[in-house]
Every structure is written in C-alpha cells, then in structure tokens.
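Extended Data, record Fumarate reductase/succinate dehydrogenase flavoprotein domain protein
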Amino acid sequence: MSADVVVIGAGLAGLVTATELTAAGRRVVLLDQEPAASLGGQAWWSFGGLFLVDSPEQRRMGVRDSAELAWSDWLGSAGFADGAASGVGPDRHGYAWARRFVEFAAGDLRAWLHAKGVRWFPLPQWAERGGYPVATAHGTAHGNSVPRFHVTWGTGPAVLTPFVRAAREASAAGLLDVRFRHRVVGLTTTDGRVTGVRAERLAHDDAARGAPSNRDVVGEVEVAADAVVVATGGIGANHALARDRWEPVFGRLPARMLSGVPDSTDGLMLQHAAAAGAALVHEDRMWHYPEGITNHSPVWTNHGIRILPGPSSLWLDADGNRLPAPLFPGFDALGALQHLTGRGDDHSWFVLNRTVMESEFALSGSEQNPDLTGKDVRLLAKRVLPGAVGPVARFAQESPEFLWADTPAELAEKMNALTASTPGSRGHVDPDGLAAVIAARDAQVASGLGKDPQVVATRAARDFRVDRLLRVAPPRPLTTPGDGPLLAVRLSVLTRKTLGGIWCDADGRALRADGSVLDGLWAVGEAAGFGGGGMHGHRALEGTFLGGCLHTGRVTGRALAR
C-alpha cells in the first residue's frame, strides 16, 4: 500500500490528525492494532474533561480567569528546566508547545469544538487545587488558581464523535483507509528519511472495546508514505517499563498496581521510533494517580478506577499517618504519589464517613458517569439529592476495598486485615492512633474555625458555589451521630499518563538526539508528550490530556497538510 501519510493509532490524537489531513485532500492510511470496537482509544473511556480558560461556563459561575493567570499556573506546575523560555535545553520545545496550548485553551479550542457540536456541563470543576505558597519569580506553585476542568456533555465519547464522523466521511470519499488489527513493528527508512512502516496483520478478534485482544500474526504488510505520524499513546499499561523509568529520587513504583488504560497502551511504538533515530525525552516524567480502586467489573488487565474526591477525607499512609500538607484529597495527586512511593507503600487510605462519601465521592471515566455520558438530565439531577450517585453506591456495596465500621478501633482492625491478606503489601494502622487522628480532626472542625490546614482549606473550598452545591460536604466531625458509619477506602497506584515522549519541533516533526529533524516522522498526543516531547514539564494541570491530543492533532495535521 501507499499513501501521502500513515497515521499509527486510531485514538483521539490520531483521528484529529487524520481528519485534518483528509480535509485538505491528503490520502491517509490509519493503522491500529486493536479491533474496530476500540476506535477512539483511551479517550472513549475518559471523563471528557477539558482545560478551558475564561470560558462562558466560568464567567456564569463568577470565576475570573485569564490566559495570563493560566500561564502563571502552568509554569508553577511544570517546573521547566532553565533556558526553556529562551529556546535553550531539552525543555525548549515542550515550553513552546505549552505556551501555544494555553493560548489555544483561552482562544480557539472551545469555539472549534462548539462548531462541531460539542457542549459542556455548565458547572466547571476545580481539579488539582495545589495548596502550596505561590512563587514570585516563576509563576504560582502547582495547581489551578481557579476552576478550569470542563466536563464534556457526553464525556469522552462526545469529544470523539465529530472526529469519528469526519473519519467515516473521509473513508466514504476514498481519502481515508482505516486498517484495524495492523500492528506496526518497525519504520522503514531510505537515506536517513522515514518512508513508511512495516506492520503485522493480526487475526480477527471479537474483543469488546478496551478488552485485551489476541496477537496472533496472520500476515505482514508494508505501507509507503511521504510521512508517518506516531499517535499510539504512552506506557500506562506497561507496568514494568513504568517502574524502570520512574524517577529514583521518589522511590519505586510498587509491584502491585492498577491500570487506568487498556492493555494496548504498551509503549512499544515509542521504541520503534527510537530505533529509527527519534530521540525520546523526559521518559521519567509520568502522571499516575494514587487514588485507584479495583474495578468490580474489569474490562482490561488490572482495571482500576480513580476516585475523584472532595477535600474532607483524611488521607493516611499505609501506617495510618496523615499525609503532610498540602497533600489533601484533590490538591496534588502526583505529589501524594511521590510521597507514598518514597515511603515504599503500595497503598494508602481515605478515612471518612458515609455522609462525606455521599457528598464528595465521584468516579472518573465515561462508564462510571452514565448520567453525563448518556446526557440523561433526570439521572443527572440526582447528584444534588441526598445519597451517593449510583456507581459510587455500587462500589460502596460491592468493593472489598470499602471498609465500614462503627468505631475507629473496628475500622483499624479491618484495614490491617485487608493489608495482611494482600500478598506483598505492608503497613499497620494502630487503633489508638487512628482514634486520636480522627478525634483531633473532629475537634478542629467542631471549633467552628480551626487551625488545621485541611480543615481551613475545606471551609475555603465551599466559597465556590459549584463545590458548595456538588462537591464539598458541610464541615462536621466524622463521628457526628447520623453521619456514619465510618469508612476506610484502600487506594492503590493507578497508572495513567506519560508526560515525556518523542522529542518534536513546533510542527510535530520528530527530532534526533542532536536536535536535527528526522525527516518523514512526526508525533502527536501522548506519544509526543502532548507536544514537543513534554509540554507539561514535571506535572500537569488537569484537563490538559484530551486537550493535548486535540491540539497536537490539529497543529501537526495542518502542518503536514501544508
């Protein structure tokens, strides 16, 4: 086969790239190793959250935002290496992509998607508050200064819809040839230029969306092209590779982890790109979550779900110690993870009560939010009524990681029993110590003011009307009669995003280690570190992953079309 462009990976970034190219009249072959049921990749499973700046949704809620404030927050989170702003050093391209992305989030992103029929839940959420003292020279410290997480009406599937539709129209017009069950195993080069791909044809598989599929080879094929685009995502399902790349200063990722992405997110295509001469940068930068729970109805291997918590739960390490400020629920997930891996823990705990769970727990992912995903207004209205939303209530009833008790001593006994029954896990929660932690926290809340940083931060969170309505329980002692029983939830590491990847220039062209262009090879989405090999720096602001796929696909697709 031959084409103007081969795009490897039919996730969101690959679809955006391919449809930008076909809109300009280019002939594209789109290859993906999974069955057709998995069209859209990880994005389909997402909550559909987008980082938008100074949006109508924000303004209606009284949020005052600006591109300047967002850029300040970005710099405070990213921690780019010196010289990046001057175009020097390994972060220079990531920095440039980040600057353009923030401008995109404050400018064309919403209007572009809106014109394609995409809409948003009207209440922006406040993910990753940070909570650190602000800096003076390099922007604010990590976290969003204002709520910027906009949930798409229809979640991840609705973000994909216009690009899937465009892909089908391009296929009907003869411009797009989509080949599922084609696994690329190498790039072909001619005189130092990438000129195509070698792929294995895999046997037919009726696997459901996201489920593991076979790797039985039934043939081979080569595709020649003027350009090849890598859009295969990161390494989230490759736990061995993630452990190997994890920055040693933060300890080691544990042997027991959950996966927040399907098995196909294996990182193998990154190695094929490197073998062809592309530079991989910032491989030690990852964005995994410490708030994972085992899915009671798994689709892929080690399938985990992330709890999206409000700020009221106590967060304890494996030995029952509170995590240091500001590592509260919803403030700095990566910082909490680094703290826990530095201790050598494979788990941590949320300690709360029934009322806090019903008010503050939400779950990430399209399948865990049937009201938003299904655009069901009646079901959505139940979020403001007493009681947990349906998916949370199901976990509370079915998950062995949700432990209920009437007293701290009984709760500690159940926590220790779960740890002891888990091979390789360690940690012991002292019953008297747990009772003392809860009593001290409750005394601060009962005072009506309090000096505990988490208690103060929780009260402040209720200043935002959306949090007061949907996300933050009224401050009350955990032992308040009628609010119980007490609850401990075991949390495990949930692998998710790769922040580094193929080093790319401003258009998405892959670069060699010396900074020269590797002709013919391009990268988008997570495979490109969402732009330039690492636009997030060392950590990300929430809602920038889908946005990064959209942005890199649009920029690189249009650059290639030119």
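Summary. Residues 155-172 form the longest helix (18 residues).
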